[in-house]
């Protein structure tokens, strides 16, 4: 059974559209027999260029659609699916438009930016497919604040169990002060080698066979706490990678729009 996500939206509707578009463009390119060398200066070249420009504008509209919460122009998942598949199709359309001719000019620069944006977009797709919760800012259907409250509840239960045991209570307090990340760079790895909860679990494990019921329950609760921390760290790592991706993808998309405008203006100026 196919996993239900933006890639398989409505039985791959936009994948089929993109494939049909590519088949049409490639067929026209193969059958075209212009009086001059194939490229952007032929009738077909202008047609493919217009199509490519329209695709770029459509792809840029996703940013506006994401902020139009009350919009009735299709679901956000549908827009994202179309964004991905038509963005991939754009790579072929742009290449056919230029007729595989490149040089040191604004036209090739616009083409290079198009490819760079598409490649960075593929990176974003991989991130979202690997961690679907990034799309809803939730982890297992809950917000990070809700998960943080779960951690506080675990800490309170451990304190209650260790209230008459100073040694155990000190360990519980040490664990409750554990930071999700002790260093900023750990956001990229999703790990904290100096995690206080992990240290406390190791020390409770040493007590092991000599522990009473309260100690065993504290150990179980601390184990659950560590698992929650690991899940948060993994999620934050993915969020950090997504933020880094956006630092590349969004500015390059804006630069592409500027380069596309310059490309179009120069074409009509010298036409």
UniProtKB/TrEMBL annotation:
It comes from Duganella guangzhouensis. Keywords: Membrane, Transmembrane, Transmembrane helix. This is Ferric reductase like transmembrane component. The chain crosses the membrane at residues 12-31, 43-64, 76-97, 109-129, 244-270.
